[in-house]
Amino acid sequence: MSDIHPDVSSVQLTALVVNCTLKPSPAESSSEVMGGQLSTFLAERGVQCESVRVVDHVILPGVQKDMGEGDEWPTLREKVLSADILVFVTPTWLGQHSSVAQRVLERLDAELSETDADGRPILFDKVAVAGVVGNEDGAHHITAVLFQALNDVGFTVPAQGCVYWNGEAMHATDYKDLEQTPEKVSASISTSLTNAVHLARLLRESGYPASN
């Protein structure tokens, strides 16, 4: 994953890594580690990346674009809308995605009623991939939930668009504790993000048509 791949297209793609760890900065986080690996891979392929640790911000509960005083979601929302690729990373707790991840999905629900000048959902032409880490089972279930929700609001998921790592059951080793990235995880990073970049370029050059 260290080889530099120059951007062969004139299209400058952008990506936003949304880290849904429960641990505020500066605490170590396995989600942060995986998010950093995904960001590095994209940057080496000419994609401009930004990362956000959601728990460091005040994201009020609700399903509106702006829930009023103190709500920091509108700023994060603008970053989501500006990015070509959303990299959605969550830890596994009790076999589920984190409560922070659920909060982000709930706030994205507001985009169901938002359309562009052609009457298309505002998140059409955006690509989403997922990263899931945990020292317990649950990655397949979490991925299914994330992809269903993200697709509902308009994102397109590339082929094999998830990267995950499950630690050995009943053990305490976290992803951040590993001395090196497992070969299968590295392969998944390469496949999912290569496909994401390819798909994002296609959608930037020729987006989905209006349905009416």
From TrEMBL:
<dbReference type="InterPro" id="IPR005025">
    <property type="entry name" value="FMN_Rdtase-like_dom"/>
</dbReference>
<dbReference type="InterPro" id="IPR029039">
    <property type="entry name" value="Flavoprotein-like_sf"/>
</dbReference>
<protein>
    <submittedName>
        <fullName>Multimeric flavodoxin WrbA</fullName>
    </submittedName>
</protein>
<feature type="domain" description="NADPH-dependent FMN reductase-like">
    <location>
        <begin position="27"/>
        <end position="165"/>
    </location>
</feature>
<dbReference type="Pfam" id="PF03358">
    <property type="entry name" value="FMN_red"/>
</dbReference>
